[in-house]
Structures are given as C-alpha cells and as structure tokens.
C-alpha cells in the first residue's frame, strides 16, 4: 500500500541507488579474487558469458524444455547458478594433505 503512494520518479531514484550499491559490492568481492588462478578466470568468464548470452540470444536454450525454463529466462539466475556450480567443481572442497593422508 505504501509503495503505491510513492511517486514513480522517487522509486526509480531509489532503485538506481540500490542496484548501484549491489553492483559496487559485487565489484568489491571481485577485488578479493585471485586472478592468477586460471580456474577463477574460467569461472568468471563462463558465468558472465552465459548470463549475458541468454539475454542476447534467448532462443539458444529453448531446447532444454519447460522444466529448465526458470533457469534460462533470466541471465542473472543462469550466471549465478553456473558460477556456484563451477566454483564448487573447480575450487570446492580442497583436499588437505596431512601426514595421516600420505601414509
């Protein structure tokens, strides 16, 4: 009810500030990533490529069927899920070598 009485330009200005803060936080997280590690570069490249690609060519994933429609309707969702899966695959549970493991 309260959102209905706020003028649209005010909501637009608030959204610009909010999304700008989210983007700035994301960039600051990227600043902590070790880009010397090729796995991290690959994760970022594939995730951003899929996220931007689904927005540019939405018909590319139509063959996956209706059960995956939720995944391919939004580039942010596809990019985020692919980043999570790839990060777990490439950087996930690192095996720590100890004396017990070596024996």
UniProtKB/TrEMBL annotation:
<keyword id="KW-0813">Transport</keyword>
<keyword id="KW-1133">Transmembrane helix</keyword>
<protein>
    <submittedName>
        <fullName>Purine permease</fullName>
    </submittedName>
</protein>
<feature type="transmembrane region" description="Helical">
    <location>
        <begin position="6"/>
        <end position="29"/>
    </location>
</feature>
<dbReference type="InterPro" id="IPR006043">
    <property type="entry name" value="NCS2"/>
</dbReference>
<keyword id="KW-0472">Membrane</keyword>
<dbReference type="GO" id="GO:0005886">
    <property type="term" value="C:plasma membrane"/>
</dbReference>
<keyword id="KW-0812">Transmembrane</keyword>
<feature type="transmembrane region" description="Helical">
    <location>
        <begin position="41"/>
        <end position="61"/>
    </location>
</feature>
<comment type="similarity">
    <text>Belongs to the nucleobase:cation symporter-2 (NCS2) (TC 2.A.40) family.</text>
</comment>
<dbReference type="InterPro" id="IPR006042">
    <property type="entry name" value="Xan_ur_permease"/>
</dbReference>
<feature type="transmembrane region" description="Helical">
    <location>
        <begin position="67"/>
        <end position="90"/>
    </location>
</feature>
<dbReference type="GO" id="GO:0042907">
    <property type="term" value="F:xanthine transmembrane transporter activity"/>
</dbReference>
<keyword id="KW-1003">Cell membrane</keyword>
<dbReference type="Pfam" id="PF00860">
    <property type="entry name" value="Xan_ur_permease"/>
</dbReference>
């Amino acid at each position: 009810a309260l959102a209905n009485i706020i003028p649209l330009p005010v909501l637009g200005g608030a959204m610009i500030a909010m999304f700008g803060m989210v983007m700035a936080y994301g960039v600051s997280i990227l600043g902590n990533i070790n880009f010397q590690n090729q796995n991290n570069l690959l994760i970022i490249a594939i995730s951003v490529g899929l996220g931007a690609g689904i927005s540019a060519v939405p018909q590319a994933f139509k063959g996956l069927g209706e059960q995956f429609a939720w995944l391919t309707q939004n580039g942010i969702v596809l990019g985020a899920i692919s980043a999570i899966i790839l990060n777990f695959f490439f950087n996930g549970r690192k095996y720590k070598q100890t004396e017990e493991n070596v024996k």
